[in-house]
Write a structure and sequence with these properties.
binds pyridoxal-5'-phosphate, about 40% helix, single chain, alpha/beta, Aspartate Aminotransferase, domain 1
Length: about 375
């Protein structure tokens, strides 16, 4: 039986077109882009072509794009790099309670090393009030970091409003756009961001390659030192096949984004309506309209998200409990807690995320299987019986 993969927010399969574009760069074009002979120059050209494609996707200039190992490194570099470059002065960082761990843990590290961090709350839909940013900015604030589209609940922030404030106050604005890029239009000028993180494996490219957009003129230090690749900002021999694949994935995203987002949001809306109408005491997490076209996140009172996922897995459906990477942790998601959900809802969450190979049949299968799974688990729950 063909499985229904509904965890595109965790990672996406590499598109066949992307794989095909990458393959020659493992053997036929072996050059190091820093080498001056023909093979090196071929590799350099391929890297610069990909840089141009990514620049076009986000309306940046090619020399504002830095290739690095993925979304995690981009988030680390954005925050640690800004603080490193600005010395002891300006060591206050503002972020939100619903950031990816790559941002939150970097903030933790910076705090341990003497920076101060303000974590802003969000409302029950996961939206940050720009007024909160205005109130939090201090004379020593160096950077504000706000996730563009949340990886768990899909809520899309109003960054254009937030950047009006950061610009007026003269502080840098970083955004983790790992979930947004390739799924919704991302334009660094319209958003007004100074730094923006992207990762290839969330948009049908390979794992282990990503990019950080750095607005020209931004004062930022490296976090890796060595041979001075990427204009001295990110040392290490370029991952040429990865960069080529990233570039191809970005070109595909630009071509298909409009039609895919229409197709996926229709499937998502059918999924949401079906789940809410057939499973009682269920909540849709995230903003009802300002959300990614491919994200649905539910809380089922008094059941554990992990148990729902294991049961779906047996029925051939791959989904994620509310918080990603939670096979190693049983803590409820920090994102759902930030929405103000009580524990019995924060634990009982399920994220279904759609993508290129999702069809109406996958949605039908979920709607067929999920109500029974939730009902069975509730029947076994002492909390449900006693509520
Ligand atoms: C996946 C993800 C990351 C991490 O990216 P990697 O390339 O896996 O390191 C960061 N932020 C968000 C929002 C993500 O979804």
């Amino acid at each position: 039986m063909k499985r229904s993969y509904l965890d595109y927010a965790a990672t996406t399969p590499v598109a066949p077109e992307v794989l095909e574009a990458m393959l020659p760069y493992f053997h036929d074009f072996p050059g190091n882009p820093s080498a001056i002979y023909a093979e090196g120059q071929e590799a350099r050209q391929a890297v610069e072509k990909a840089r141009g494609s990514l620049a076009r996707l986000i309306n940046a200039r090619p020399d504002e794009i830095l290739f690095l190992s993925g979304g995690t490194e981009a988030d680390n570099m954005a925050l640690a790099g800004i603080l490193n470059a600005n010395g002891c002065r300006g060591r206050h960082v503002i972020t939100t309670a619903i950031e990816h761990h790559a941002v939150l843990e970097t903030c933790h590290f910076l705090e341990k090393n003497g920076a101060s961090v303000t974590v802003l709350p969000v409302d029950t839909n996961g939206m940050l009030d720009p007024g909160e940013v205005e109130k939090a900015v201090r004379p020593d604030t160096a950077v504000v970091s706000v996730i563009l589209a949340n990886n768990e609940i899909g809520t899309i922030q109003n960054l254009a409003e937030i950047s009006k404030i950061t610009r007026e106050k003269g502080v840098y604005l970083h955004s983790d756009a790992v979930q947004a890029a390739g799924r919704i239009p991302v334009d660094v000028e319209a958003l007004g961001v100074d730094l923006l993180s992207v990762s290839a494996h969330k948009l049908y490219g390979p794992k282990g390659i990503g990019a950080l957009y750095i607005r020209k003129g931004t004062r930022i230090s490296p976090i890796l030192w060595g041979g001075g690749q990427e204009r001295g900002k990110r040392s290490g021999t370029e991952n040429v096949p990865g960069i080529v694949g990233f570039g191809k994935a970005v070109e595909l995203a630009q071509l298909t984004m409009a039609s895919e987002s229409g197709r996926l949001s229709a499937l998502r809306d059918r999924l949401i309506a079906g789940v809410l109408s057939t499973i009682p005491e269920t909540r849709l997490n995230g903003h009802p309209t300002q959300r990614l076209p491919n994200n649905a996140n539910f809380s089922f009172d008094y059941v554990e998200g992990e148990s729902v996922c294991l049961n779906l897995d047996l029925a051939g459906i791959s989904a994620s409990p509310g918080s990603a990477c939670s096979s190693t942790s049983t803590a409820p998601s920090h994102v759902l807690l930030a929405l103000g959900l009580p524990q019995h809802q924060a634990f009982g969450s399920l994220r279904l995320s759609l993508g290129r190979w999702t069809t109406g049949d996958d949605i039908d299968r979920v709607l067929e299987v999920l109500p029974g799974v939730v009902a069975r688990l509730r029947a076994m729950s002492p909390l449900w019986a006693r509520k």
